[in-house]
Amino acid sequence: MLFMGSAEKILERMRNNPRDWRIEDLLALAERLGVGVRRPGGSHVIFSFPGGIGEATVPAHRPIKPIYVKKFLALVQAMRREE
């Protein structure tokens, strides 16, 4: 399980290099940070935050393209602004 310090370090690494991340990395961070996760049965995972801040849809194939990592990071940042 990730500790908040570890989650912050991983988020910083994602910001600095959004390449070569796996869906498992995003799922672990989402669980630790309280981001909602839905798997509607296809090849995508939908990350969202309760309260309607927004959502990020990420394909579950490897590696995740940088644009999807950036969308996930934007969702986390928006979530933190709301807290």
Q: What's the gist of this structure?
A:
With 83 residues, the protein is an alpha+beta fold. It has helices at residues 4-16, 23-33, 66-82, and strands at residues 36-38, 44-48, 55-59.
Instruction: Briefly note the structural class of the backbone.
Output: alpha+beta
Could you state the oligomeric state of the chains shown?
A: single chain
Question: How many domains would you count in the coordinates?
Answer: 1
Output the radius of gyration: 12 Å
Low-confidence stretches: none
Q: Tally the helices: what do you get?
A: 3
Helix proportion = 40-55%
User: What's the arrangement of strands in the largest beta sheet?
Assistant: 1-2-3
Strand percent estimate: 15-25%
Could you spell the SSE succession in H and E letters?
A: HHEEEH
How much is the average pLDDT?
87
Describe what this molecule looks like in 3D.
- It is a single chain.
- By secondary structure, this protein is of the alpha+beta class.
- The protein has one domain (4-82).
- The protein has helices at residues 4-16, 23-33, 66-82; strands at residues 36-38, 44-48, 55-59.
- A 3-stranded antiparallel beta sheet has the order 1-2-3.
- A hairpin with a 6-residue loop joins strand 2 and strand 3 (55-59).
- The longest helix is centred in the last third of the chain and has 17 residues, at 66-82.
